[in-house]
Write a structure and sequence with these properties.
Bound molecules: pyridoxal-5'-phosphate
Strand content: 5-15%
Order of helices and strands: HHHEHEHEHEHEEEHEEHEEHEEH
CATH architecture of the largest domain: 3-Layer(aba) Sandwich
Largest sheet: 7 strands, mixed
CATH topology of the largest domain: Aspartate Aminotransferase, domain 2
Radius of gyration: 22 Å
CATH class of the largest domain: Alpha Beta
Length: 382
C-alpha cells in the first residue's frame, strides 16, 4: 500500500491511526525547543478548540455563539492594551495581523506606490507585506540597545509613508522600541502607527513594570498580539486590534452570499476554534495566571543569563523579556553542535549574529542546567 496516494478503497480507521501515530512519533518535543515562540497550549485551550472545531467565523451568522466569544476576546484584549473599545478579529497569527494592519493603513491613506517605515529589527512578515501590497519597505537603523533609532525613522518618513511600525518585543532580542516617540512623529504627520506586539503583547502587561507602549499612547493606531505565542492558546491564533472602526472598515468588502454583508478578515473561511481557545485560556488564567506564566519565564531567563555568564558567555543586551541572545564565537557552528545534542536553538541576523533562545513555559530549570553543560563543552571543543 502506498501511503502517499489516494486509495481506491477505504483504509480502516485503526490503520490510519497507526500511520498518524508513527508520524507523530517523528515530531520533536517541546522540552528542548529554545528556538520557538510557540509553546504547548494550555489544556483548557485544547478543550475549547476541540469543542468548536467545526465552526466557521467567516460566516458568523451561522455560528453566533463562537462569534460572541471572538467579540469578547477582542474586548478583553483591547482592555488589556488600554482601549476597551478597540475593534478587530482573531487572525491566523502575527503575519496576517501585520498584513491587515498595513493594508488598512494604506487603504485609509489613499496613497498609491507608498512606503512603510519599519525598524531594521522588524519581523520578515513586513518584507512579505512590501511584496504583497507593492509598498517600499524602508528599514530604520537601530541604536546601541537595538531599539529603533528615532532620528533614522524621521529621516525615512515622507509624504508617501502609509504606515510606521514600532515593535514591542522584537523577534530576535525581545527589545521594545520607543513607541511614545514614534507616536509623536505619527501624530504630527498624521501617519498610521502600527505596533507589532506579536510576542510582547502577552508579556509586557504582566512583567510588573509599567511599560507604556500600547493604546494608552495617543497615536498608536493598531496592535498585533498573538495568543498562540505567550497567550497559551492553540495554533493558529493571532490578534489584530484597531483603535477606531474607521480602520477596520477600510478592510471590509462586500460578501454577496454570506450571513454578513461585509467581511474584514483576510481569509474567508476561518476557524472559530482558536478564538474559543483564546477566550477560554484568557478567562481561566486571568491576570494573576498570566503574571505567573510570565514570572516563571522571567525566572528561567535570569537563570539562563546567570548560568551563561558563569561560563563566560554574555547576552547581547540585558533581556527585557524572555528572549535572550548570547554572544558566542562562531554561532552557526555552536548552533549545529547543539542541535546534534538535541537542543534546538536559533540565531539572530547580521550584524548582531548570536545564539537566540526563547524561554517559553515548556522550558524547565533542569533543562537550562543541562543545556549550559552542553554549551560549555561545545565551546571548549571548538
Ligand atoms: N511579529 C513578531 C514580532 C514575531 O516575533 C513574529 C513571529 O515570531 C511574527 C510577527 C509573525 O508571527 P506568525 O509566525 O504567527 O505569523
Amino acid at each position: 500500500m502506498r501511503e502517499d496516494s489516494l486509495p481506491e478503497d477505504s483504509i480502516p480507521e485503526e490503520e490510519v491511526l497507526r500511520i498518524l501515530d508513527e508520524m507523530k512519533g517523528r515530531d520533536l518535543h517541546y522540552d528542548r525547543f529554545f528556538s520557538t515562540m510557540c509553546t504547548r497550549p494550555h489544556s483548557i485551550a485544547v478543550k475549547a478548540h476541540n469543542l468548536f472545531l467545526e465552526t466557521n467565523l467567516g460566516d458568523p451568522g451561522l455560528f453566533p455563539g463562537v462569534a460572541e466569544l471572538e467579540a469578547r476576546t477582542i474586548r478583553i484584549m483591547g482592555e488589556l492594551l488600554g482601549c476597551p473599545d478597540a475593534v478587530g478579529y482573531i487572525s491566523t497569527g502575527g503575519t496576517e495581523s501585520n498584513i491587515q494592519a498595513i493594508r488598512a493603513a494604506r487603504s485609509a491613506s489613499r496613497v498609491r506606490a507608498g512606503n512603510i517605515v519599519v525598524p531594521a529589527s522588524a519581523h520578515f512578515s513586513f518584507d512579505k507585506i512590501g511584496d504583497l501590497l507593492n509598498l517600499e519597505v524602508r528599514k530604520a537603523d537601530l541604536d546601541e540597545n537595538l531599539k529603533v533609532d528615532v532620528s533614522s525613522v524621521e529621516r525615512l518618513v515622507d509624504d508617501r509613508t502609509v504606515a510606521m511600525v514600532g515593535i514591542a518585543g522584537t523577534t530576535e532580542f525581545g527589545q521594545v522600541d520607543p513607541i511614545d516617540k514614534l507616536a509623536q512623529i505619527a501624530k504630527d504627520r498624521r501617519i498610521h502607527l502600527h505596533v507589532d506586539a506579536a510576542f510582547g503583547g502577552f508579556v509586557l502587561p504582566f512583567l510588573g513594570q509599567d511599560y507604556l507602549w500600547d493604546f494608552r499612547i495617543d497615536g498608536v493606531s493598531s496592535i498585533t498580539i498573538d495568543p498562540h505565542k505567550m497567550g497559551m492558546s492553540t495554533i493558529p491564533a493571532g490578534g489584530l486590534l484597531f483603535r477606531t472602526t474607521k480602520d477596520i472598515n477600510a478592510l471590509e468588502l462586500d460578501t454577496h452570499y454570506l450571513t454578513v454583508a461585509r467581511q474584514a478578515s483576510l481569509t474567508g473561511t476561518r476557524s472559530g476554534a482558536s478564538a474559543a481557545a483564546t477566550y477560554a485560556v484568557m478567562i481561566h488564567l486571568g491576570r494573576s495566571g498570566f503574571r505567573n506564566v510570565v514570572g516563571y519565564c522571567m525566572d528561567l531567563t535570569r537563570h539562563l543569563v546567570a548560568g551563561s555568564r558563569k561560563i563566560g558567555v554574555n547576552p547581547v543586551i540585558k533581556p527585557v523579556m524572555n528572549v535572550v541572545a548570547l554572544t558566542v564565537k562562531s554561532p552557526a557552528e555552536v548552533r549545529s553542535e547543539l542541535i546534534k545534542l538535541g537542543w534546538h536553538v536559533s540565531m539572530t541576523r547580521e550584524p548582531n549574529r548570536a545564539l537566540r533562545l526563547i524561554l517559553m513555559p515548556h522550558i524547565t530549570h533542569e533543562n537550562i542546567d543541562l543545556f549550559l553543560e552542553d554549551l560549555e563543552a561545545t565551546l571548549k571543543n571548538l
